[in-house]
Amino acid sequence: MNPAMTSGGPSEPAILDAMELTADPGMGVRFAESAHQILAELVSGGAALGWVEPPSRDEVVELLGHVVSAVQDGDAALRAAYLDGRLVGLGYWLRYARPTHRPHADLEKIAVETAAHGRGVGRAMASALIADAREAGIEVLTLDARGDNTGALHLYRSLGFTEYGRLADFVAVGEHRYDKVFYMLDFRRHA
């Protein structure tokens, strides 16, 4: 599938799922390369994505392989955003592994390249991942974010997530300390 053809127009992101990404082996390789570039650029700029130093290409390939495998087992969803045929963002959730937590999943990552900020990419991916979670029978979708990531926190609140906890000064990046904020979207309340 050509990502440029699935978009509603040049300013609207095309959101592909894992099956669309892996259907064409060449596209999967390009996706991994582009995902690495996006994540490395964002982390280099100080983005709160779980790395202090930019991830290596191999780390990103291994991570994506793990997520795609979980998608195939029904334990995850992966989405990729394209603008004008170019990857500009990715996001995924993973079902909790503990047997007592299986009805729940954690929205692990949403990353949008800097040049695409403000174009609705993060909202489109988050909305698609929320829909995927509902369809998969997830009861509660959780996430955590760094407290200074105000744009992401605003987006999550606007999509119905509520804060359920905060650890003050928990995230250490060099000498800087940030709150770790926990959000949840309880589908049981919105059934």
How does this model look, in words?
- The model is unreliable at about 1-10 (pLDDT under 50).
- This protein has a single domain, classed as Gcn5-related N-acetyltransferase (GNAT) (Aminopeptidase).
- A seven-stranded mixed beta sheet has the order 1-2-3-4-5-7-6, with helices on both faces.
- The protein is of the alpha+beta class.
- The protein has helices at about 20-25, 25-45, 55-70, 120-135, 150-160, and strands spanning about 15, 75-85, 85-95, 105-110, 140-145, 160-175, 175-185.
- It has five helices and seven strands, in the order βαααβββαβαββ.
Describe how the helices and strands are arranged.
Layout: E1 14-17, H1 18-23, H2 25-44, H3 57-72, E2 76-83, E3 86-95, E4 104-112, H4 121-135, E5 140-146, H5 150-158, E6 162-173, E7 176-186
Parallel strand pairs: 4-5
Antiparallel strand pairs: 1-2, 2-3, 3-4, 5-7, 6-7
Helix pairs in contact: 2-3
The ordered string of helix (H) and strand (E) elements is EHHHEEEHEHEE
What strand line-up does the widest sheet have?
1-2-3-4-5-7-6
Q: Mean of the pLDDT scores?
A: 91
Largest sheet descriptor: 7 strands, mixed
Indicate the CATH class. Answer: Alpha Beta
Oligomer: single chain
Helix percent reads 25-40%
Task: State the main characteristics.
single chain, 191 residues, alpha+beta, Aminopeptidase, 7-stranded mixed sheet, 7 strands
